[in-house]
Amino acid sequence: MIVITGGDPGGIGPEVIIKALEKVEDDFLIVGSRKAFEQTAQNLKMFKWRRYRFVDPKPEAEIQVGKPHGELSFLYFNKSLEILKSEPASALVTGPVSKHAWVAAGHDFLGHTEFFEKKFGRVVMGFWSGGMKVVLFTHHLPLKRALEKITPEELREFLNLLLPSLERFFPGDELIVSSVNPHAGEGGEMGREEIEVIGPIIQDFALEGPLSSDTVFLRGEVESRWILAFFHDVGLAPFKLLHLEDGAELTFGLPWPRTSPCHGTAFDIAGKGEASEGSMLTAIRLSRRMLNRL
């Protein structure tokens, strides 16, 4: 079974889910606001989602389209985790939420990934498309703190988590490693992390790199190749430029596969029928692919 959370009911989550479900056949359980889904389906004249099981933990809640609902979206997410405890052979697809709304509602997490890290320990944030694939060594951290995490111990722990997960869910895929400094440090002239930290560790794992981050993504449009980027924007700027609408986010290191669209709540276009379901459709199909590897 694939569990789908509706995300923030005031955003485009219900819309992109309904549109995506028109194009797939599978066993789904949706957790979210039935009111938001019903109204969205009426506007879109799409009703196929009704064939799937639906859980609404707070049906009396009032929904304002275009406005954040941090407490509700967190409630839907938590309910999905409860369901997954009793459904071991399942996957999770999370609809987009507002990080600011979660914090404003009193939940000290900048998003799903930070919640997973607190509950399950270290996880790895990745992004998948039919072309480019990226994993992030650090994600939602200020650049100064992200630099401090690049140590031999941290990198070794990261690879010990990531590589078995890649082999499990994407057997045969390869991982290449980008750089921290311009031109991969230019032989130490622009920084020594590549020589003193990254190089020795990835040599132990027989990985290619470190390769200069300004050109490594030219080698990324290969179906079976992943790029390890050390910083959030270094990895996601090229990925989203090319694959915002056909790519999806995934999390390695959880008890079950988890995917999500790689866009946000888009409150400004919620309720207008303008949202693209491409990324959500990829997330759903990717969850099935990963679930088949359990």
List keywords for this structure.
single chain; 294 residues; alpha/beta; Isopropylmalate Dehydrogenase; 2 domains; 11-stranded mixed beta sheet; 16% strand
Description:
The chain has 294 residues and is of the alpha/beta class. It has 2 domains: 1-120 and 248-294, Isopropylmalate Dehydrogenase (3-Layer(aba) Sandwich); 130-245, Isopropylmalate Dehydrogenase (3-Layer(aba) Sandwich), CATH 3.40.718.10. It is 38% helix and 16% strand. The chain contains 10 helices and 11 strands. It has an 11-stranded mixed sheet, sandwiched between helices. Helix 1 (13-21) crosses helix 10 (278-291). The longest helix has 18 residues, at 152-169. The mean pLDDT is 95.
Label the structural class: alpha/beta
Helical region count? 10
CATH arch. level architecture of the largest domain: 3-Layer(aba) Sandwich
**Helical percent range?**
25-40%
Overall outline: elongated
Order of helices and strands: EHEHEHEHHEEHHEHEEHEEH
What is the number of independent domains?
A: 2
Q: Can you tell me the CATH superfamily of the largest domain? A: Isopropylmalate Dehydrogenase
Spatial separation of the terminal alpha carbons = 12 Å
Average pLDDT, rounded to a whole number, is: 95
Name the beta content range. 15-25%
Instruction: Say how many strands there are.
Output: 11
CATH class assignment of the largest domain: Alpha Beta
Low-confidence parts lasting 5 or more residues at pLDDT below 50? none
